[in-house]
UniProtKB/TrEMBL annotation:
<feature type="domain" description="GST N-terminal">
    <location>
        <begin position="4"/>
        <end position="82"/>
    </location>
</feature>
<dbReference type="InterPro" id="IPR010987">
    <property type="entry name" value="Glutathione-S-Trfase_C-like"/>
</dbReference>
<protein>
    <recommendedName>
        <fullName>glutathione transferase</fullName>
        <ecNumber>2.5.1.18</ecNumber>
    </recommendedName>
</protein>
<dbReference type="Pfam" id="PF14497">
    <property type="entry name" value="GST_C_3"/>
</dbReference>
<keyword id="KW-0808">Transferase</keyword>
<dbReference type="InterPro" id="IPR036282">
    <property type="entry name" value="Glutathione-S-Trfase_C_sf"/>
</dbReference>
<dbReference type="InterPro" id="IPR050213">
    <property type="entry name" value="GST_superfamily"/>
</dbReference>
<dbReference type="Pfam" id="PF02798">
    <property type="entry name" value="GST_N"/>
</dbReference>
<dbReference type="InterPro" id="IPR040079">
    <property type="entry name" value="Glutathione_S-Trfase"/>
</dbReference>
<dbReference type="GO" id="GO:0006749">
    <property type="term" value="P:glutathione metabolic process"/>
</dbReference>
<dbReference type="InterPro" id="IPR004046">
    <property type="entry name" value="GST_C"/>
</dbReference>
<dbReference type="GO" id="GO:0004364">
    <property type="term" value="F:glutathione transferase activity"/>
</dbReference>
<dbReference type="InterPro" id="IPR004045">
    <property type="entry name" value="Glutathione_S-Trfase_N"/>
</dbReference>
<dbReference type="InterPro" id="IPR036249">
    <property type="entry name" value="Thioredoxin-like_sf"/>
</dbReference>
<feature type="domain" description="GST C-terminal">
    <location>
        <begin position="84"/>
        <end position="210"/>
    </location>
</feature>
Amino acid sequence: MSSGDLKLYYFNLAARGELTRLILAAAGRSYDDIRYSFEQWPEYKPKMILGQCPVLELADGTQIPQSLSIARYVAREANMAGADNLESAKVDAVVETQRDINEIFYSKVFFEKDETKKAEQLKTFLEETLVKHVENLGKLKKAYSKDERYFVGNQLSWADLFVYQSIQSLVQALPEVKGKFGDQFKPLIDAVHANENLKKYLDSRPKTDF
Ligand SMILES: N[C@@H](CCC(=O)N[C@@H](CS)C(=O)NCC(=O)O)C(=O)O
């Protein structure tokens, strides 16, 4: 398939668009990775079905908005969404658990403008929210994993890539988090870095602020 049959529209950022880029990279699926700056966005916004991005556009012009819907769609196409309905539900549970923490982090810490509030919320985030979250991910992994590298069953799923990407973004924003949770994500991170397709993408993707 030519890359032109699939287009991903998103800012030149990791953030909400990066999970889909990672899934497509892992699948070795070519696509047009359409990236733009905030200044260029007004040109694209009216062309997006909900006036927001990321958006995945298929060959017939169908647009899929909502980052996790896009990611789930491309993951299913790539057989990275669980081997059956039950595995898909387990994968979704890991994804939703990760989404919970990302939302708290971005709303209470990353985008908080009031510096006093931000400092207080960061403390709570590091001392309570993140600790609980890592415990929750550990519970899901214990229940669903059959391979220490992956959260569900014995193969890489989009949930693994979501957790991987979220950890990378968190560490980029808050370097003090690195090393805070020992080695529990190491097998996953090593597996991602050992994957030829992912390594190629990770080594060549643009460096972005977040
Ligand atoms: N729930 C949506 C949120 C989409 C969203 O808020 N996108 C932002 C960028 S991360 C956006 O399009 N901002 C520009 C605008 O709304 O004009 C998703 O996960 O895709």
